[in-house]
Design a protein that fits this description.
heterodimer; A: mainly alpha; MetI-like fold; 2 domains; 15 helices; B: alpha/beta; Rossmann fold; eight-stranded mixed sheet; four-stranded antiparallel sheet; 37% helix; globular
Chain lengths: 336, 339
């Protein structure tokens, strides 16, 4: 009951939070120099043509009025139109956001699977060889650029070994994509029972997800290692040893105390990667939301950028809500 | 121990008369590119069953290091480099980690200071208490819980049923101290180490906790090493009192003899400080303390540089812990003489 009240309150707060985010990003996007009308009409456009296009696009209004119009359209589910794709931003994002989400989620899952066990193992034995590997890995993963690692992986697994399909998009061009339900190709292929499509989509997913996983395992590993070490050396762990508690119990209790900081770093990475995976998206021609937003920024295409910010914000707020619920489960002090 | 005692012809009650025996214990802390710092230097103490031995000393004297070294858990990065800790016929310093686990918390337990930080913040108090009984006494969950509740009643926590479900941060300092005492007494240990257990508590609460601790120790006829910075407490709480300075016992005596006829200059200084008597304090502080050279404590008396009675021999020869009158030992070349 308490939890439901808490979630309700949090959801209520999401509305003003989103309004604030939209306002700030609107101002930021508008302050980027560049005139979409000039870009749309090309170098030979007459001033008259530009002025009339300004009127058509609503750019002749003052900034507050433009913001008000944007908000009004937003209330009707209209996120504007991208002049580059000439399609409604909402449609574009519904197509592209799941692509990014699929990539980032799988990449983060891999990062957790690599980082958490390695971090724990090195915390148990600070001077062991595994701790040495973990330290080296943490340093390496933090200093490698993700797009470079992506190119190396492509070279090894596509060019040389031919184990994976070409890094061009999310599915082979010759294969008919499954009918979109969730927008996540692997899931849609499974829903449609289309094994061929699933195999192709999964094959295309391997390398980009591996890239993100290998890079982002670094911070997760470091956080797991340091917080676990801290907990194992903490007063209460020492006291449990003094009380003759078996090692496995001491470790279990330390782990539970270390978990919140690991969950925090994972959630921060999740929110960050929605936009932060854009270089990997570009290398693999993924056609995700990050790529879409960057194109928008470069071409003064406001609405895709704003739409992307809005989508990411909603996603981040959702992730943080879930994380708070996880904290509830881990740390009884919060709800008690 | 009994078999060993018989083999050398000691009467059996003699071997039973020692609950814990520490011999030539040495704990060192490594120093980067240097000689290790000695925290406990060749220390001997023995404690009889049912006895409460008070251990007094200033911060950094080695009180906590000694307490934890007895459990073979010296504070990191300290190492036990020599000595014997004889308990129940075995040397604790030679046991494996698994064997030590069965002794810690069951046969020898420790009451720690600042207990709110020592309890697991995410586990209810009752569960932490019960897990001691589950681990050490092989109790099932249900009877372990019943025992935990019983212990909380024994340490006179108000509303014990509710406290069972409380988390450590919800307890007051006094209550947390009682919980830690309950944990320490759970398995009726034969030896209890109380490390500064009442510091940071209100004086009234302190008196209550001490009374409770003494009552429970007497009831279980356990022996106790009672470590404190407050020499006043030992006067009405301990059977014998020992003074530790820089990891060495300076004076150890039965309570009456200790307080009526203290013999070590350092003891005099501690008593002067406790009595808030500036005149006495000045009398036992050397006038030129700051200019004295640092004495090599390996060969000289550890207290030389602070001692108003120090002479040449104190810097070159370490005094032995010698028995002056029955049971009253002093480590000093020039102890106070009393008749």
């Amino acid at each position: 009951m308490r939890i439901i009240l808490y979630i309700g309150r949090r959801l209520l707060f999401i509305v003003p939070q989103l309004l604030g985010i939209v306002l700030v990003s609107f101002l930021l996007v508008k302050s980027i120099p560049g005139d979409p009308a000039v870009l749309m009409l090309g170098p030979t456009a007459t001033p008259d043509a530009i002025a009339s296009l300004h009127r058509k696009l609503g750019l002749d209004h003052s900034l507050p009025v433009q913001f008000w119009i944007y908000l009004k359209n937003l209330a009707h589910g209209d996120l504007g139109t991208s002049w580059q794709t000439t399609r409604p931003v909402l449609e574009d994002l519904i197509q592209r956001f799941p692509a990014t989400l699929e990539l980032v989620s799988l990449g983060l899952l891999l990062a957790v699977l690599i980082g958490v066990p390695l971090g724990l193992a090195s915390a148990f034995n600070e001077r062991g060889w595994l701790a040495g590997i973990a330290n080296f890995y943490g340093l390496g993963a933090g200093s490698l650029p993700d797009f470079w690692l992506a190119l190396v992986l492509i070279f090894i697994f596509y060019t040389t070994l031919q184990w994976v399909p070409a890094p061009l998009g999310r599915i082979d061009l010759t294969i008919v994509p499954p009918p979109p339900v969730t927008g996540v190709l692997t899931v849609d292929a499974l829903l449609a029972g289309d094994w061929q499509a699933f195999r192709s989509a999964a094959g295309h997913l391997v390398l980009p997800a591996l890239t993100l996983g290998l890079i982002n395992a670094g911070p997760i590993l470091k956080m797991t290692q340091s917080s676990m070490e801290k907990m194992l050396q903490s007063d209460f762990s020492r006291y449990e040893v003094l009380c003759g508690m078996p090692r496995r119990l001491v470790v279990r209790h330390a782990l539970r105390n270390a978990l919140p900081s690991v969950v925090t770093i994972i959630s921060v990475l999740y929110g960050f990667l929605i936009g932060g995976a854009v270089l990997v998206e570009i290398v693999f021609s993924w056609g995700g939301a990050g790529q879409y937003a960057v194109q928008g920024v470069l071409n003064s295409d406001f609405y895709p950028v704003l739409g992307f910010v809005l989508f990411s914000a909603i996603f981040s707020l959702f992730v943080y809500l879930v994380v708070d619920l996880i904290y509830f489960a881990i740390d009884p002090r919060i709800s008690h | 121990m009994p078999a060993f005692a018989q083999s050398i012809g000691l009467p059996p009650q003699n071997s039973a008369a020692v609950a814990l025996l520490v011999e030539r214990l040495r704990v060192e802390f490594p120093v980067l590119r240097g000689k290790p710092k000695v925290a406990i230097r060749d220390l001997d103490i023995s404690i009889r069953p049912g006895e409460i031995l008070g251990l007094v000393g200033e911060s950094g004297a080695g009180k906590t290091t000694l307490a934890r070294a007895i459990l073979n858990l010296p504070p990191a990065p300290g190492r036990i480099t020599a000595g014997v800790v004889q308990f129940d016929g075995v040397d604790l310093l030679r046991l494996s980690e698994g064997e030590l686990q069965r002794i810690r918390g069951r046969d020898i337990s420790m009451v720690v200071p600042n207990p709110r930080g020592e309890l697991n913040p995410l586990v209810p108090v009752g569960v932490q208490l019960a897990s001691i009984a589950q681990v050490h006494l092989d109790k099932d969950r249900h009877s372990a819980r019943a025992m935990a509740l019983e212990m909380l009643q024994a340490v006179q926590i108000p509303d014990p049923e509710r406290r069972m479900r409380a988390y450590p941060h919800e307890l007051s300092g006094g209550m947390a101290q009682r919980v830690v005492i309950a944990i320490a007494l759970m398995c009726s240990p034969r030896f209890i180490i109380s490390d500064d257990a009442t510091s940071g508590l209100d004086v009234t609460v302190q008196a209550q906790i001490l009374e409770l601790l003494r009552h429970l120790v007497r009831k279980q006829s356990s022996a106790m090493l009672f470590i404190t910075r407050d020499i006043g407490i030992t006067a009405h709480f301990c059977d014998r009192v020992a003074v530790i300075y820089r990891g060495e016992i300076m004076e150890i005596a039965p309570r009456e003899s200790f307080f009526l006829a203290p013999r070590h200059p350092y003891t005099m200084l501690l008593l002067a400080a406790f009595l808030h008597n500036p005149q006495l304090r000045r009398a036992w502080t050397p006038p030129d303390a700051s200019v004295r050279a640092n004495v090599d404590t390996e060969i000289g008396c550890a207290y030389t540089d602070r001692c108003p009675r120090a002479r040449k021999i104190c810097q070159t020869t370490k005094p032995l812990l010698a028995e002056r009158i029955s049971g009253h030992f002093v480590r000093c070349h020039f102890p106070l003489e009393r008749e």
